């Protein structure tokens, strides 16, 4: 197959400057030449996940975005709150590529059989620098999509699908039998509803608005609790009791929700207990915080006994913990079900240059539920 | 050996009443007759630990204590804040014995060889109902104290010594190499200083007053950080960096300290790291909350990456986790070092009836650092 790559390609970059701004730009970089075991992919689709925004915007306020430079190579600067700067010391002055995952077509390959076998295939990729026209990576790191799958359909094979599978797998490995999930109307949350239905896993969905209850019920969710409702805690206790959930994954992070979930679990556990235990239930109750939709402080009253834990959870360390074979099995399940269980929907497709438009930035930075952007670096 | 037990003995009781008060009393109960494998102990010393106060006072306000009944059988009532009542539903109306641990002399024994072998021995005990003249228990549950040890010396063999050993053992089993401890000037904290010195374990002591720094330094503590000092966070980071501590045991519970410790650990870990990691250090940082000196909410800003955990820690589940043999080995170490590493000091010895004196209650309920009461049920 003939190469269609040019000698250079566009790549989106993010740089934090010591004066307290983040600078976003699109730069022209040399197209890498694949080594023997590598392939070159023409990236055609890469989602903007919440996990991409931290690296991209570095906590900057999107409403402060200002544009300079020519229209086809804009440079955007936005102000970072001073309190966020110390945590960014490690990336000061570095022009960083962005984009955790994406998909595209293999247009060049090294001479190894494994690399050559991928020529012309549509593959999904994980590993950063996906907001770029070209991405070079090792052949075994490509996830080959089933024939007929488009790059847009396969762009979100890793972050959301593996996170959903990782939650269920963590549940099984840590001895729990059902889950609570917050911000459950998200793309990931909808995927988790479908996955738990298919795998017959009890799931309590916590959402923040009444209309999201209907959305999830429409997907077949059995337990949906609206945290804006006056009877939220009572609903949550009932749903936790009905499922037996003692593990939660929380995308909110800040505020009181993590503690409320532990309290609901403890209430459900102790109301059937016999006799008084001054230390509460002996069943371990766990909340993993995997996101930070609320960046404010986390606060909880310790009204859930002593057998509890709150902690951080990240996909990559989880995959390392379970080992390469188990991780590969999860990835192959994603590829097989990428247009069903693990299908993603996008509200807008934009080019690399459009991703620097302040109006678009303000829009995708909102992390509005149900809205998700797809960058197509092949679009001009 | 002749029995010196009377047919009945005094026992301290705590009852939560539905009208929102706790009632403390001393009642006369029949002296149990030991079965074949049991012994009867004349209790001569039982400490008032922070962990006893929850069961004893049920969260009641000591300043509301009122006495009725005769001087030798007083009945004390104190008001429980309404917010604390729901959590006490499981013990409503039950007259509960109190006292986690104690020591005394075996005065009667069942006919089994193991029980007979204990006659006349001074033993330490764990298991509740120690604020009583007599306590019957299984022979294997007695921890025989070295010859010459008094009951007062052996009264605190379990809660504090096993907790200190449990912290160091948890550290080793979970892959950490040094510890942070809060409220470190407590009896337990002083014991942990001696234990970590003896076992060559790095220890960062967090105290709340300048004079406590000197107290712990006098015991040989190398790292003592005063949370009331303006440079507390800087001191904490230095001490955590010097020891490499990634595990903390927190007796405070409420407030911001747990989060500050995680932040100090993260700062110490990342300041030597190369390159920027947007998710922070990959080293797991853990705080176990094992007490509640501050009963207010726990609050933290998530400024310590994603590899972190906060959770409850209790001695009894820990001992169950490590198994009977490992737990027995820890107990035997305590007995062997009960007058050195694990020695406790008491500020006052009181009788069962004196334990119901409102002035004494107000005093021991303060949980003042360095003050510890010993109940001697044999004292009249």
List the helices and strands and how they pair.
2 copies of one chain form a homodimer.
Chain A: E1 8-17, E2 21-30, E3 38-47, H1 50-57, E4 66-68, E5 75-79, E6 96-97, E7 101-109, H2 113-116, E8 122-126, E9 134-138, E10 143-144, H3 151-154, H4 159-173, E11 178-182, H5 187-199, E12 202-207, H6 210-218, E13 223-226, H7 232-243, E14 247-250, E15 253-255, H8 257-270, E16 285-289, E17 294-300, E18 308-312, H9 315-322, H10 324-336, E19 348-350, H11 358-364, E20 373-375
Parallel strand pairs in A: 11-12, 11-14, 12-13, 14-16, 15-17, 16-18, 19-20
Antiparallel strand pairs in A: 1-2, 1-6, 2-5, 3-7, 3-9, 3-20, 4-5, 7-8, 8-10
Helix pairs in contact in A: 4-5, 7-8
Question: How would you characterize this protein structure?
Answer:
Two copies of one chain form a homodimer. Helices cover 28% and strands 28% of the residues of chain A. Chain A is α/β, with parallel strands linked by helices. In chain A, strand 11, helix 5 and strand 12 form a beta-alpha-beta unit.
């Amino acid at each position: 197959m003939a190469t269609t790559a040019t000698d250079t390609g566009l790549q989106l970059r993010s740089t934090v400057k010591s004066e307290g701004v983040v600078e976003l730009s699109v730069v022209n970089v040399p197209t890498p030449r694949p080594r023997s075991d590598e392939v070159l992919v023409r990236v055609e689709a890469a989602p903007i996940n919440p996990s991409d925004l931290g690296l991209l915007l570095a906590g900057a306020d999107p409403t402060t975005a200002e544009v300079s430079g020519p229209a086809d190579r804009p440079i955007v600067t936005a102000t970072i709150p001073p309190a966020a700067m110390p945590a960014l010391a490690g990336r000061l002055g570095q022009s960083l590529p962005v984009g955790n995952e994406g998909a595209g077509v293999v247009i060049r390959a090294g001479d190894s059989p494994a690399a050559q076998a991928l020529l012309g295939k549509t593959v999904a990729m994980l590993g950063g620098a996906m907001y770029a026209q070209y991405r070079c990576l090792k052949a075994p790191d490509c996830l080959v999509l089933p024939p007929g799958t488009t790059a847009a359909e396969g762009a979100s094979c890793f972050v959301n699908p593996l996170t959903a599978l990782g939650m269920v797998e963590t549940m099984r490995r840590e001895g729990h039998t059902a889950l609570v999930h917050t911000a459950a109307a998200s793309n990931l949350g909808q995927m988790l509803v479908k996955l738990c239905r298919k795998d017959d896993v009890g799931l309590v969905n916590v959402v923040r608005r009444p209309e999201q209850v209907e959305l999830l019920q429409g997907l077949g969710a059995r337990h949906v609790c609206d945290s804006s409702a006056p009877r939220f805690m009572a609903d949550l206790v009932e749903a936790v009791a009905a499922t037996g959930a003692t593990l939660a994954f929380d995308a909110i992070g800040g505020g009181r929700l993590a503690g409320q979930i532990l309290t609901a679990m403890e209430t459900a556990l102790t109301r059937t207990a016999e006799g008084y235990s001054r230390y509460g239930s002996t069943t371990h109750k766990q909340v993993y915080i995997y996101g930070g939709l609320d960046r404010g402080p986390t606060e909880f009253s310790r009204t859930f006994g002593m057998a509890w834990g709150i902690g951080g959870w990240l996909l990559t360390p989880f995959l390392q913990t379970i080992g390469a074979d188990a991780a590969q099995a999860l990835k192959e399940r994603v590829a097989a079900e990428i247009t069903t269980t693990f299908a993603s929907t996008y509200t807008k497709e934009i080019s690399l240059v459009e991703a620097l438009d302040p109006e678009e930035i303000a829009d995708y930075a909102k992390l509005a539920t149900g809205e998700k952007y797809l960058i197509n670096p092949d679009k001009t």
